[in-house]
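Example record

The entry below shows one chain as it appears in the dataset: sequence first, then structure tokens.
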Amino acid sequence: MKIVSYIRVSTQRQGISGLGIEAQQAEIAAYAATNKATITAEFIEVESGKKNDRPQLDKAIKHARLTNSRLTIARLDRLSRNAAFLLTLKDSGIDFVCCDMPNANSMTIGVMALVAQESREAISRNTRLALQACKARGTRLGNPNGAAALRRAGKGNTASCIAQKARANARAVDLSDVIEDVIAKGHATLKQQASELNKRGIKTARGGRWHPSSVSNVRARLEVIADRHSSVRMDA
């Protein structure tokens, strides 16, 4: 089993001194030893004044997703009042474990963030009940001709292509931090970058190995995304 370590300290002073970091590292190391797991990466968050800003958590989740690793958190008890953290963890869709609360799962995390989540869930619940009531009254929901009408209108393939492009863009964004780190580590050529991604256990979108061409494609996609965002900011 592979795990990604996420450690959080509450002040810049703790981050510089290492106070609190060693204890959390020890807890995660003990968990890894007990479960015969390999720590593939470690992310340390020094909480700033902006309590909802968790860039290292985002990076840890991306890395866990890309490497099919389990996100491992030393101490959940100190984070249980932070709705932004809990909801990010709950919605990440990755496997995770908390050393101090090993039985915590998406359900219990969701309960902890119940107040922040209640409004959104209430809207979803009311919408579902309204649709059920319409169906009970005999109202026909959706397109009566189904996918056939979409195909005749030439919209089915377009929608599929848009969804596929959105998934590819999201995957590229997930990979951006890793690629930047690979380049920063001195892997200048596409061949070197592909080799390093393979060494790190990161798969392509189709679950295969990296080649110079696949790295080039992702980097080109990231450039397009960056250019688009830059244009939007200039227009604003």
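Notes for this example: DSSP finds ten helices and four strands in the chain. The first helix runs from residue 12 to 17.
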